[in-house]
Specification:
glutamine amidotransferase; seven-stranded antiparallel beta sheet; Glutamine Phosphoribosylpyrophosphate, subunit 1, domain 1; Rossmann fold; binds 5-amino-5-deoxy-1-O-phosphono-D-mannitol; EC 2.6.1.16; repeat; Ntn_hydrolases_N; GFAT_N
């Protein structure tokens, strides 16, 4: 939800800011802008559309200056237009500000500022902040920012420059991520660390209600009351090369194909070949008091929520603990029953999803211990949880989540085994048997990927269909939801996922001879039930696409198209069946000529409610 970057140093800031924005474009891409400070004048360039549009414009008018801020937008208040694009300015154009988040009390503040004679030009909530700074300024930008923060309600990360304060950026955060890059002769600020990594590995994750003043060689952090705070500088270990396409046409396909090696690497880390137990050492699980846990609640959004649903099956199966799964946006506004024997598990790739973060805060406020499963180390949810299990998916750049989903499912499977062992419910022979099968998963995933042409043919046959239905049962029910989400968010084809047993209670009315139904039917306890539901579709002339276990002849006889996956333990089958679903969405989307890495209206990191 919007990416912000700022640079103050000795080099020309424009290319540095644009490169940072390129790394943050996953956060929003409906318009972009940049403001450069040169002596006491500020040069602003904004453009509607993706960053490439701003880039082309900058080739014609390149602003000069060694201090500047930039923004890539995901619209909340006001349509994507040049006037609504950031940076925003005050009445005299002396201050320029970029913002990520939502100012909830902007209507009342705007009226107050209008009454004082301020003139507004945009429809955004952001503009009130830069006018507030103008109002509060008396020669010190940091102080003006702190005074303004005290008036704001909502979530924000800001960076602001002022014509009267050369070589200075002031930034602040409350609820939206912000990281300071501590360089040599320069300092940066950005929505995430990837945007500063070309310049420094030393970062400060700004705390909520803190503001920072950055000069070329100095930085001062203050809390909202104006007290100076010692910055906590950390070294980051991310690799820039992991954030490139590495010869693939899109990030999404690169990330899909990374899944076998990702699973192999996680297994090597979590259950090294000589080990008989699962190694969660870095997670500090002992802080959770696991011995007294009698119940689990999971909070997450989107794809992470589908992974939570798979995790529910795992924890109930192997650890015999009751599990509830909630979408975070519902959890935070109902009145959940949380007792001191409840463990809340929050799952998030980015670790910044606003609803999930609010769920974590709410759970802790009610006295629960929170364990988070996170991909991005140092993210807000990581830092605010009692314990964190990293899923180690590596940087996921495509807006549609693929490898992070697999990594979340794997982490949940390992967690369920760990809890089962700890609770004395999973005997060693059974544990060894499932781990043995788990070690075969990377090879089996690779063979599904090697078969990608079969999925491509399927995509070719059905890419014109206006609707799709996805059906699954048991461990593969969440994958039905995930398959539908992948297809709709990328290709804009309407798709629904449904528990196969639920189909007859409504969705079956949709079926006719134009309607493709993707059925997840790997071998397992519910296979026969799945076959019956597929017969019901066939009887209504629906088009059956099956994802089934290799060697299944029954499916070949009954379905329009069959995609095979190797045999595995049924609990592990979602790790295999999800790959054709990801590939199907990818191929249908590319066949339609759509932007697979940056679908319309979406952003990867949803830091607003
Ligand atoms: O970063 P998170 O895992 O918390 O993100 C949650 C969802 O926003 C995310 O999974 C979203 O649904 C993706 N677009 C799915 O591909």
């Amino acid at each position: 939800m919007c990416g912000i970057v700022g640079y103050v140093g000795k080099e020309q800031a424009t290319p540095i800011i644009i490169e940072g924005l390129r790394r943050l474009e996953y956060r929003g891409y409906d318009s972009a802008g940049i403001a450069l400070l040169n002596a006491s004048s500020i040069h602003v360039v904004k453009e509607v559309g993706k960053l490439s549009a701003l880039r082309s414009r900058l080739q014609k008018e390149s602003p000069v200056g060694t201090t500047g801020i930039g923004h890539t937008r995901w619209a909340t208040h006001g349509v994507p237009s040049e006037v609504n694009a950031h940076p925003h300015h005050d009445c005299t154009r002396s201050f320029m500000l970029v913002h990520n988040g939502i100012i909830e009390n902007y209507t009342e503040l705007r009226q107050e500022l209008l009454d004082k004679g301020h003139r507004f030009v945009s429809e955004t909530d952001t503009e009130v902040v830069v006018h507030l700074i103008e109002e509060n300024y008396s020669g010190d930008l940091l102080r003006a920012m702190l005074s303004s923060m005290r008036r704001l309600k909502g979530a924000y990360a800001f960076a602001v420059i002022a014509a009267h304060e050369p070589d200075t950026i002031v930034a602040a955060r409350c609820g939206s991520p912000l990281v300071v890059g501590v360089g040599n002769g320069c300092n940066l600020v950005a929505s995430d660390a990837s945007a500063v990594l070309s310049h420094t590995r030393r970062v400060v994750y700004l705390e909520d209600n803190h503001a920072v003043r950055l000069g070329r060689d100095n930085l001062v952090v203050c809390d909202i009351a104006g007290n100076e705070v010692e910055p906590n500088v950390k070294e980051i270990t991310l690799n820039l090369s992991d954030m490139e396409k590495a010869g693939h046409p899109h990030f999404m396909i690169k990330e899909i194909f990374e899944q076998p090696s990702l699973v192999a690497d996680v297994l090597m880390r979590r259950i090294p070949p000589t080990s008989r137990e699962i190694d969660f050492q870095e997670a500090r699980l002992q802080t959770l008091g696991l011995d007294r846990i009698r119940r689990v609640m999971m909070v997450s959004c989107g794809t992470a929520c589908h992974a939570s649903m798979v995790g529910k099956y795992y924890i109930e199966e192997f650890a015999r603990l009751p599990v509830e799964v909630d979408v975070a946006s519902e959890f935070r506004y109902r009145n959940p029953v949380i007792t001191d024997d409840t463990l809340v598990i929050a799952i998030s790739q980015s670790g910044e999803t606003a609803d999930t973060l609010a769920g974590v805060r709410e759970a802790r406020r009610r006295g629960a211990k929170v364990l988070s499963l996170i991909n991005v180390e140092g993210s807000s949810i990581d830092r605010e949880s009692d314990a964190t299990l990293y899923v180690y998916a590596g940087p996921e750049i495509a807006v549609a989540s693929t490898k992070a989903y697999t990594a979340q499912i794997l982490a949940l499977f390992l967690l369920a085994l760990f809890l089962g062992r700890k609770r004395g419910l999973l005997e060693e022979p059974h544990f060894r048997e499932v781990v043995k099968e788990l070690r075969l998963i990377p090879g089996k995933m690779q063979s599904v990927l090697d078969n990608h042409e079969v999925v491509k043919i399927c995509a070719h046959k059905f890419s014109d269909a206006p609707n799709f239905l996805y059906l699954g049962r048991s461990y593969n029910y969440p994958n039905a939801l995930e398959g539908a989400l992948k297809l709709k968010e990328l290709s804009y084809i309407h798709a629904e996922g449904c528990g196969a047993g639920e189909m007859k209670h409504g969705p079956i009315a949709l079926i006719d001879d134009t309607f493709p139904v993707v059925c997840l039917a790997p071998a397992g306890r519910v296979y026969e039930k799945m076959v019956s539901n597929m017969q019901e579709i066939r009887a209504r002339r629906g088009i059956l696409i099956a994802i089934a276990t290799e060697g299944n002849k029954e499916m070949a006889a009954q379905c329009e198209h069959v995609i095979s996956v190797p045999h595995t333990h049924e609990a592990l089958s979602p790790l295999l069946t999800v790959i054709p679903l990801q590939l199907l969405a990818y191929y249908v989307t590319t066949m339609k000529g759509l932007d697979v890495d940056q679908p319309r209206n979406l952003a990867k990191s949803v830091t607003v409610e």
